Automatic annotation (TrEMBL):
<dbReference type="InterPro" id="IPR040131">
    <property type="entry name" value="MnmG_N"/>
</dbReference>
<keyword id="KW-0285">Flavoprotein</keyword>
<dbReference type="Pfam" id="PF01134">
    <property type="entry name" value="GIDA"/>
</dbReference>
<protein>
    <recommendedName>
        <fullName>tRNA uridine 5-carboxymethylaminomethyl modification enzyme MnmG</fullName>
    </recommendedName>
</protein>
<dbReference type="InterPro" id="IPR036188">
    <property type="entry name" value="FAD/NAD-bd_sf"/>
</dbReference>
<dbReference type="InterPro" id="IPR004416">
    <property type="entry name" value="MnmG"/>
</dbReference>
<feature type="binding site">
    <location>
        <begin position="273"/>
        <end position="287"/>
    </location>
    <ligand>
        <name>NAD(+)</name>
    </ligand>
</feature>
<dbReference type="InterPro" id="IPR002218">
    <property type="entry name" value="MnmG-rel"/>
</dbReference>
<dbReference type="Pfam" id="PF21680">
    <property type="entry name" value="GIDA_C_1st"/>
</dbReference>
<keyword id="KW-0819">tRNA processing</keyword>
<feature type="binding site">
    <location>
        <begin position="13"/>
        <end position="18"/>
    </location>
    <ligand>
        <name>FAD</name>
    </ligand>
</feature>
<dbReference type="InterPro" id="IPR047001">
    <property type="entry name" value="MnmG_C_subdom"/>
</dbReference>
<dbReference type="Pfam" id="PF13932">
    <property type="entry name" value="SAM_GIDA_C"/>
</dbReference>
<keyword id="KW-0520">NAD</keyword>
<keyword id="KW-0963">Cytoplasm</keyword>
<comment type="similarity">
    <text>Belongs to the MnmG family.</text>
</comment>
<dbReference type="InterPro" id="IPR044920">
    <property type="entry name" value="MnmG_C_subdom_sf"/>
</dbReference>
């Protein structure tokens, strides 16, 4: 039976990618259906209840700058906020929030329920309707058919999901949820390259059985950070602390003694796990010389007795999990509420995707989130937003939204995936971006909000707040540029004690802020030079724009230079072995990957700038 209404966009899956995808296309005014297994688990955090961190926090701010939900929900659900790398430069500073799992779900559900053009339906999607290599709809478990112009699949770890605890395993999408078997089989029959990955999660502990006196307390930051550009500190719920403890030699011995029953070390699990979020058995194996690993003891929520011990993800048998947990300081009497487990699932090679996240083989079908080989809520949310927006743009017959590597971490993420693919769960790091100085958390709105507004992703309230902030920055910068201080000026007397070298000639206020010992807030606190602008985010921008102007200009020059060759085409039948000077390794990599452009060639790991110069010279010679 066909459902009576036809949709423009159907999003399958209500996780982090799915909710952002559905909200994005609905915000853009197209008729959207969000079809998910269980409406109660919309926005469910499958693993640790935390959002943000280095690289990931940048993605959250970008989702927010494009009108997405993740940062808004985090402000409503965060119970411990921190700014990481706060003593370092603004490019690598990142916000992280411990979230109340249930408040987060409630916040996402609330945003979804208030979004016009968005319809919810609870059922499993078991099949796709494909005609002449174009997707036309989906079929649910009970045989109900939904027609649509485009479909976005965001089914996470559910495709052919197998859960492992020790040598036991069973089918599951994540603990407590069914896997997607029928859909996995359908997708495997399509011409996409498919492989298996794995991820894992630690046992959850009963807070009442832990001894916090033996652990180190880790309170949140003061002043309290806010994640969304539209957020306020007053949005945050009550704040509580996290704690830190460590594994020890005994823990490691217990783990080693259980490796013969570990699904990872006995070859039962074939999928590759996340290198940067390894299981504890992986850690003691890879870092054999370390006799201790840190564990962050994170509360799951304000009204929950569950604790997430971040750092001891494991799929060892339950008896080993029990002993290893109890060997840890503060966990001596710990009760395990939920055992840790690993999950293996299908993912599709993201090189089979266009930069819009539309699949290369089936028109109108988009993939976003963990299905593309990534790991993490933030990576999923960012892809979801882009896929949802591009599905809507295709329906509207408008140009796609593709963000370049120098414009956004989302651009880096999608470019990395679609040009290089991934062999292990991909997570974002600031080191993956070559233009870090431009891609800061604090300027995500500068980079993206106007783009979002242009295509309908950004609502009037956000747009008005953004413009107000821009105007305030502009006015203040003009004032600082055009206000001059003479050494004999009365206010200079108050300023000189704060300077390493007192003023010897006239300087603009902007020049003075550039001095390393001076800040915008220090300067504007002096009578006659202030007051500082009220909007704290705008004040921060004024300071960063002035202090880093030189570096930022240099990076922009570099971008302009590299863009010159970004789209230079490389013939698909190019014989790289004929280029003298290229190493065998470079020839092999180029021959295997066959990049379409010089831009893509530069991003293949191991392809050096020198190799690119040789390629350019060769292309020039060929005319
Ligand atoms: P999900 O959040 O998994 O959402 C998928 C949604 O699709 C769900 O709502 C599901 O019900 C729905 N769905 C699935 N199939 C169908 C269907 N056929 N029809 C209808 N609906 C369907 N990330 C980290 O960053 N670090 C970690 O250490 C980490 N560990 C993890 C451990 C485990 C055990 C799991 C399960 C995940 C872990 N993650 C970790 C990953 C993180 O949870 C995901 O990256 C993130 O949730 C992916 O978002 P997503 O939207 O792609 O998928």
């Amino acid at each position: 039976m066909f459902y009576q209404q036809e949709f423009d966009v159907i999003v399958v899956g209500g996780g982090h990618a799915g909710t952002e995808a559905a909200l994005a296309s609905a915000r853009m005014g197209v008729n959207t259906l969000l079809l998910t297994h269980n409406v109660e688990t919309l926005g469910q955090m499958s693993c640790n209840p935390a959002i943000g961190g280095i690289g990931k926090g940048h993605l959250v701010k970008e989702i927010d700058a494009l009108g997405g939900a993740m940062a808004l929900a985090t402000d409503k659900a965060g119970i411990q906020f921190r700014t990481l790398n706060s003593s370092k430069g603004p490019a690598v500073r990142a916000t992280r929030a411990q979230a109340d799992r249930s408040l987060y779900r409630t916040a996402i559900r609330n945003i979804i329920e208030h979004q016009p053009n968005l319809t919810l339906f609870q059922q499993s999607c078991d099949d796709l309707i494909v005609e002449n290599d174009r997707v036309c709809g989906v079929v649910t478990q009970m045989g109900l058919k939904f027609k649509a112009k485009t479909v976005v699949l965001t089914v996470g770890t559910f495709l052919g999901g197998t859960i492992h605890i020790g040598m036991e395993n069973y089918k599951g999408g994540r603990a407590g949820d069914p896997p997607s078997i029928a859909l996995a089989e359908r997708l495997r029959a399509l011409p996409f390259r498919v492989d298996r990955l794995k991820t894992g999660t630690p046992a959850r502990l009963d807070s009442r059985t832990l001894n916090y006196d033996l652990m180190q307390e880790q309170p949140g930051d003061t002043p309290l950070p806010v994640v969304s550009f539209m957020g306020k500190v007053e949005d945050h719920p009550r704040q509580i602390s996290c704690y830190i403890t460590h594994t020890n030699e005994r823990t490691h011995d217990i783990i080693r003694s259980g490796l013969d029953r570990s699904p990872m070390y006995t070859g039962v699990i074939e999928g590759v796990g996340p290198r940067y979020c390894p299981s504890i058995e992986d850690k003691i194996n890879r870092f054999a010389d370390k006799n201790s690993h840190q564990i962050f003891v994170e509360p799951e929520g304000l009204n929950s007795i569950e604790i997430y011990p971040n750092g001891i993800s494991t799929s060892l048998p339950f008896d080993v999990q029990f002993d290893l947990v109890r060997s840890i300081k503060g966990f001596e009497n710990a009760h395990i509420i939920r055992p840790g487990y690993a999950i293996e699932y299908d993912f599709f090679d993201p090189r089979d995707l266009k930069q819009t996240l539309e699949t290369k083989f089936i028109e109108g079908l988009f993939f976003a989130g963990q299905i593309n080989g990534t790991t993490g809520y933030e990576e999923a949310g960012a892809q979801g937003l882009l896929a949802g927006a591009n599905a809507a743009l295709q329906v509207q017959q408008k140009d796609p939204l593709v963000l370049r590597r120098d414009e956004a971490y989302v651009g880096v993420l999608i470019d990395d995936l679609s040009s290089m693919g991934t062999k292990e769960p991909y997570r974002m790091f600031t080191s993956r971006a070559e233009y870090r100085l431009l891609l800061r958390e604090d300027n995500a709105d500068f980079r993206l909000t106007a783009k979002g507004r242009e295509i309908g992703l950004v609502d009037d309230a956000r747009w008005a707040a953004f413009n107000q902030k821009m105007d305030a920055i502009e006015l203040e910068r003009q004032r600082l540029k055009s206000t001059w201080v003479h050494p004999k000026h009365a206010a200079a007397e108050k300023l000189n004690p704060l300077l390493k070298n007192p003023l010897s000639r006239e300087h603009s206020l902007e020049d003075i802020i550039r001095r390393p010992e001076m800040t915008y807030l220090k300067l504007t606190s002096i009578d006659g030079f202030g007051p500082a602008i009220e909007n704290a985010q705008a004040a921060e921008q004024v300071e960063i724009q002035i202090k880093y102007a030189g570096y930022i200009e240099r990076q922009k020059d570099e971008i302009a230079k590299s863009l010159r060759h970004e789209n230079t085409l490389l013939p698909m039948d190019f014989d790289y072995s004929t280029i003298s000077g290229l190493s065998n390794e470079v020839v092999a990599k180029l021959t295997e990957t066959r990049p379409e452009t010089i831009g893509k060639a530069t991003r293949i790991s191991g392809i050096t700038p020198a190799a690119i110069s040789l390629l350019l010279v060769h292309l020039k010679k060929q005319g």
